Amino acid sequence: MINVTKTFLPPFEEYAAILKRAWDKAWITNNGELVQELESMLKEYLAVDQLLYTSNGTVVLQIALKALNITKEVITTPFSYVATTNALLWEKCSPVFVDIDPGNFCIDADKIEAAITENTQAILATHVYGLPCNVEKIGEISLKHNLKVIYDGAHAFGCIYKGKSLLSYGDISTCSFHATKLFHTVEGGCLISHYKEMNDQLFLYRSFGHLVDDYYCVGINAKNSEFHAAMGLALLPYINSIIEERKELVSVYDSYLSGHVQLPVRTIKDFTYNHSYYPIVVQSEDVLLKLKISLEAKGVNVRRYFYPSLNTLPFLPAGSNSCPISEDISKRVLCLPLYPSLKTSEVKMIAEHILSLI
Ligand SMILES: *Cc1c(COP(=O)(O)O)cnc(C)c1O
Predict the structure, then answer these.
(1) Where are the domains of the chain?
(2) Ligand 1 mean position, distance from CA 177 (Å)
(3) What is the pLDDT of residue 321?
(4) Average model confidence (pLDDT) for the chain?
């Protein structure tokens, strides 16, 4: 069975040797040594000043909204994983969906201003598949209209835009380190901000809002454990070669499929991509469903990332805006298997099979 992704695991002995440091001290959670070490390694790798390691990539969106005092309308993308919208709804914010750019499937920055009302407080956008949102334009709009910007960077680990990590844009950027993501710690995530004051506030929110006997604010539990941090520390030395191997496989897929299926635009000036996903867009939903069933019969699991378009979720308040481009793309997009131990021959088999069916 070939799945859409296969979690990369470091050699067990390397994981165990790191974990043993926490084990021997019997200090296994609550801002332990390995968590702090992972945070400094990640700050170095991403070249950011303020980063907090957390339990996942969803609670960080909720914390970001809380820290920026967002309670009303938030302009957001309909083309992302459901966690992006869920975080807004969970925090009782009102999502206002703005359609996507048909080129790279991120929110179309040229359509944002028309959606701003007197209740708009923020923009929550996803660098979908690790492709960059129009961060310049979104930055300009946010200054002009006094809006906060949060980027859901769950797919953007290792992407570099204009000499900086893509995770260093916006007031707050988040990432997910879930086992299905490019860099993972089994479960996990992080919060990236720009000032020590904000980082201190986020630190409090991450652990119940108190430091020992001093209680400052309402908080939640978004801490992560030494077991999880150990996975990150063991995996980080491999991340550049993981990205390289993915890049090779992507070029094999491209050599078969480009020109035959629609691919998102990945060549962007001043941008280094992480090759975290390989989405293709086919002619119609019918073709997609046929393709999916036929690939599954050959033991290949593909996934409908991202479907449905989030503005059509059944639990949204009535009257959510329509987003024709996102609704169309999400019905026709499929992510193909992509992970370091995938063989070139398997990529060829999958690509040839697709070509024979479309
Ligand atoms: C995976 C993902 C999340 C959620 O991350 P978890 O760590 O699983 O909570 C949020 N946003 C996007 C875009 C994702 O792909």
Answers:
(1) 12-237, 239-357
(2) 8
(3) 85
(4) 97
Q: From atom 2 of ligand 1, which residue's Cα is the shortest distance away?
A: 154
CATH number of 12-237: 3.40.640.10
Q: Which of 90, 178, 183, 309 to mutate to test the pocket of ligand 1 (most atoms within 8 A of CB)?
A: 178
Ligand 1 contacts CB of residue 77 (under 6 A): no
What is the arithmetic mean of pLDDT over 198-202? Answer: 98
Assigned superfamily of 239-357:
Aspartate Aminotransferase, domain 1 (3.90.1150.10)
26 Cα to the center of ligand 1, angstroms = 30
The pLDDT of residue 319: 79
**91 band by pLDDT with thresholds 50, 70 and 90:** very high
**What length does the chain have?**
358
Pairing mode, strands 164-165 and 172-176: unpaired
Site to probe by mutation for ligand 1, drawn from 152, 183, 307, 333 as the one with most ligand atoms within 8 Å of Cβ, is 152
Examine the pLDDT at 248 and tell me if it is beyond 90.
yes
Is the pLDDT confidence value at 320 over 90? no
